[in-house]
C-alpha cells in the first residue's frame, strides 16, 4: 500500500508533462502567428508589385 501512495504522490508532483504541453502550445501559437503574418504580408507585397507593374506599363506606353 505504501508503494501505491508513493507512486501517486510522485505522479501528482511531476511537472515535466505540464512543461512539455506548455512548450507545445507556445510553439503552435508562434506557428499560427507566422502563418498569419506571411499571409497578410504576401497579399500586401503582391498588391505593391502589381501597382508598380501597372505604373511601369503606363509609363512605357506614354
Task: Chart the SSEs and their pairings.
Blueprint: H1 2-13, H2 16-61
Defining key terms:
62 residues, mainly alpha, 2 helices, 94% helix, 0% strand, rod-shaped
Q: Structural class given helices, strands, pairing?
A: mainly alpha
Taking all Cα atoms into account, the compactness measure Rg is: 27 Å
Output mean pLDDT: 86
Distance between the termini: 93 Å
Detail the poorly predicted runs. Answer: none
* Tally of alpha and pi helices: 2
Can you tell me the overall shape?
Answer: rod-shaped
Q: How many strand elements?
A: 0
- Helix-strand pattern, N to C? HH
Task: Please bin the fraction of helical residues.
Answer: over 70%
Largest sheet: none
Q: Strand-residue fraction? A: under 5%
Description of the molecule:
By secondary structure, this protein is mostly helical. 94% of the residues lie in helices and 0% in strands. The chain has helices at residues 2-13, 16-61. The mean pLDDT is 86.
Task: Please outline what is shown here.
With 62 residues, the chain is an all-alpha fold. The chain has helices at 2-13, 16-61.
Amino acid at each position: 500500500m505504501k508503494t501505491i501512495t508513493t507512486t501517486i504522490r510522485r505522479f501528482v508532483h511531476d511537472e515535466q508533462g505540464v512543461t512539455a504541453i506548455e512548450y507545445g502550445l507556445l510553439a503552435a501559437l508562434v506557428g499560427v502567428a507566422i502563418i498569419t503574418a506571411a499571409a497578410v504580408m504576401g497579399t500586401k507585397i503582391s498588391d505593391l508589385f502589381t501597382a508598380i507593374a501597372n505604373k511601369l506599363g503606363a509609363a512605357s506606353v506614354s
